[in-house]
Amino acid sequence: MDLALVLVLYVIGLALVAAETVMPGLVIGIVGAALVATSVAFGFGHHWALGTGQLAVALVVAPLAFFTGVRRLAMKASLTESSFAQDLSIYDGREGVAVTDLRPAGNALFDGRKLDVVTAGDLIARGRRVRVIRVEGNRVVVKAV
């Protein structure tokens, strides 16, 4: 197949796939993907079966690799979040300084670590000393000292 025709099929296919993101419709995306796949297969010339086989392998391997990577990132994020929440319990009862105005949420500094905190409803000015009265997961509740 002529290289120019292969490139035209590829560009039209990519345009249809891009159009799918703006105008959702199953037909546009399927036709675009089919044109891209056809252009890749025919891009191998007389060895189009080789191109089709490589395309089929790519269509199986790419989603598997993507979902495996996403799963690993999600597992790593959940481990980080759970260890972070457990780490905050060490601040229960400690005193620190409000870095921002707490209205009722803001930031406070405890042992050199800035934490997101919330008051029990009071407004606390920046620079005032605060004490952690309870830790609920990743929620740190403070009161003025």
Textual characterization of the structure:
The protein is an alpha+beta fold and 145 residues long. It has 2 domains: 83 residues, no CATH class; 53 residues, Nucleic acid-binding proteins (OB fold (Dihydrolipoamide Acetyltransferase, E2P), Beta Barrel), CATH 2.40.50. The chain contains 3 helices and 5 strands. A 5-stranded mixed beta barrel has the order 1-2-3-5-4. Strand 4 and strand 5 form a beta hairpin. Helix 1 packs antiparallel against helix 2 and helix 2 packs across helix 3. The model has no long low-confidence stretch (mean pLDDT 83).
Overview in brief:
The protein has three helices and five strands, in the order H-H-H-E-E-E-E-E.
Features:
alpha+beta, 145 residues, 3 helices, single chain, 21% strand, OB fold (Dihydrolipoamide Acetyltransferase, E2P), 2 domains, five-stranded mixed beta barrel
Sheet-strand content, in percent, reads 15-25%
Q: Count every helix, treating DSSP H or I runs of 4 or more residues as helices.
A: 3
The biggest beta sheet reads: 5 strands, mixed, barrel
Instruction: Tell me the span between the first and last alpha carbons.
Output: 80 Å
Low-pLDDT sequence parts: none
Seen as an oligomer or otherwise, the chain set is single chain
How many structural domains in the coordinates?
Answer: 2
Query: What level of helicity do the residues show?
Result: 40-55%
Q: What is the averaged pLDDT score?
A: 83
Task: Please list the strands of the largest sheet in the order they lie side by side.
Answer: 1-2-3-5-4
Structural class designation: alpha+beta
Report the count of strand segments. Answer: 5
Shape: elongated
Order of helices and strands: HHHEEEEE
- The gyration radius over C-alpha positions equals 28 Å
